[in-house]
Amino acid sequence: MNWNKPARMFAVAGLALAAAAAWGQVAIGTNTSGTVTAGTPNTNTGATTLGTTTVPVLSATNGGKGINPIGSTNGILNALSPVGGPGGPSGAFAASGAAPGDPGTGMAYTAHDFTGAVTPVGLCTFCHTPHKAKSTLLLWNHTLSSNTFQWDVAATTSGTALPGFTGNAYNGPSAKCLSCHDGSVAIGDVGWFNEATHTGSSALWGTMRNSKTLVGTGGNLSGNHPVAIPYPFNGAPNVYNGSTTGAQLASNDFVGDPTANNIRLYSDVGGGAIVGKPTSGQTGIECSSCHDPHNKAAKENFFLRGKLVGSSTADGYLCLQCHQK
Questions:
Q1: 154-174 pLDDT, tens digit each
Q2: What are the start-end ranges of the E strands in 85-167?
Q3: What is the spatial distance between Cα 227 and Cα 212, in angstroms, rounded to a whole number?
Q4: 24, 31, 125, 286: which is deepest, by most CB within 10 A?
Q5: Is residue 280 over pLDDT 70?
């Protein structure tokens, strides 16, 4: 693609603006501090559903990627939100001219690329650190939410119980996702990087303020697809996170092994351990069954392992990768 052709640039900019609005991020506005300095909090007002937010604004030289929610040049906010994410608005449209994080191409320049933090970090070491991690499991570097996550009903229509879980006690990957996405813990509440502690540091961006990226606020998962529950792997009953597949389950409504369709399943092997491979009788689903946070198997926006729209398994429609309808 020739990015130097003006017509194509205007077309891409228009698409990016539409995508930015759809993602609900701060798109345009004014920088009331008048100057842009790396690490300096600036109050930004404008097209945001949450009103005025105060965030650390980075210099334009880092491309506006990562946790910088506003790309800025000479005190004026760019019209494009650099939130990133596969297929979504990206730091690619900022001054760096870097390629966007397309689906399946890895984490760089996606919403999970935090290398543009005011205190620079590595692509992996914001969430995982080789030393002084908060836990040996996954070398997790981010404070986990203390919320207890529950739904508004006790069970599915098939009778599968929705047991919920507590963020800082559950070892499944959904607890890691919600440690940022429930909005109760600052994104920058990480334990260790480059021989220095950053827990609670203002040098890293604070809480996730955007309502459209929040899931499970206050522990309330009502209206969200259940996770940390059993999946009828190979059409058989399974036990996962203390819940057993419901007696009213119609197994022919589910794909026996959706891992063949790019979905990831997990096993509860006992003692609170969750492993990343299905096992007959112990298989369940997590947030990362449908989302790939590392953007390796993602097919579309929001790190999805399938497509948002469609009518068949073959065309990639996400729902039909598990549900046979």
A1: 999 999 999 999 999 999 999
A2: 148-149, 165-166
A3: 19
A4: 286
A5: yes
Is pLDDT above 80 for 6? no
23 forms beta bridges with none
> Structure tokens of 14?
């228009």
- The region, left, alpha or beta by phi > 0 then psi within -120 to 50, assigned to residue 125 is alpha
At 67, which amino acid appears?
I
Question: Does the structure show a pLDDT above 80 at 202?
Answer: no
Q: What percentage of the chain has pLDDT greater than the value 70?
A: 64
Domain boundaries along the sequence of the chain: 6-93, 229-321
Alpha-carbon span 141 to 126, nearest angstrom: 7
Q: Most confidently modeled of 103-112, 182-191, 206-215, 305-314?
A: 305-314
Closest to 41 (Cα-Cα) out of 32, 50, 51: 32
pLDDT, one tens digit per residue, over 21-49 is 332 232 222 333 334 344 444 343 333 22
Residue 4: Cβ-neighbour burial (10 angstroms; 0-12, 13-18, 19+)? exposed
φ, ψ for residue 166 (rounded to 5)?
-100, 130
Q: Which residues of 14-51 are buried (b: 16+ CB within 10 A; e: fewer)?
A: eebbebbeebbbbbbbebebeebebeeebebeebbeee
Q: Return d(Cα 39, Cα 147) in angstroms, integer.
A: 30
Q: Please, what sign has the CA dihedral across residues 285, 287, 292, 293? A: negative
Residues 6 or more apart in contact with residue 195 via CB below 8 angstroms:
none
| Of the candidates 172, 289, 279, the residue with the CA atom closest to the CA atom of residue 236 | 279
Which residues, 6 or more positions from 127, have their beta carbon under 8 angstroms from its beta carbon?
112, 114, 140, 141, 142, 176, 190
Complete DSSP assignment for 17-51: HHHHHHHT---SEEETTS---TTEEEEEEES-TT-
Q: Model-level pTM?
A: 0.72
* Region at 75 (left for phi over 0; alpha for psi -120 to 50; beta for the rest): left
CB atoms within 10 A of CB 323: 13
